[in-house]
Amino acid sequence: DTAVSQTPKYLVTQMGNDKSIKCEQNLGHDTMYWYKQDSKKFLKIMFSYNNKELIINETVPNRFSPKSPDKAHLNLHINSLELGDSAVYFCASSQVFHEQFFGPGTRLTVL
Amino acid sequence: AQSVTQPDIHITVSEGASLELRCNYSYGATPYLFWYVQSPGQGLQLLLKYFSGDTLVQGIKGFEAEFKRSQSSFNLRKPSVHWSDAAEYFCAVVALNTGTASKLTFGTGTRLQVTL
Question: How many CB atoms lie within 10 A of CB A1?
């Protein structure tokens, strides 16, 4: 009964490929997020959705496109992967004005 | 812009010793503050949070933090560290609240090493 789950846990791919990361939460939260953690462990928000609507869209390359089919799911699709996209991507969910619950992360390695 | 500073990149303490991890924030209004812990290869787990009220907040695993507005600080403490506390600790502040989503700004983290 994992609260926030992500698949896959590890993703190794070649430059130029397109890949997706999936996230699901069973907490009944209305808001979901994507964060990127770089090699120095710095965490930065990328996107936030509330009930399938994009709310926060940070300065992220257009190659990154989030999609929320319903409020329990938030997927991240990345086109034309680059070396600099290598990072750990975390999904999170919350009710507004409350703490965010994080998934286990997806470690993306671009070769 | 809102920011969080964790001055200590790496701290080593002996098991059983006390611990204090520093966090300073920059925020114009009353901040919502959090401490998260990340064990190796794991996601982030919330240790505690401050929204309002009592400035000394208790969290899980025996951690506590004190909000000091005059010092813009939210330091994390534990009276006796266990070897299992070795991890990366992140302080965070809600930098933006749109009404339907909250944007967290994180500090750069403090890596805690515990010696036996």
Answer: 4
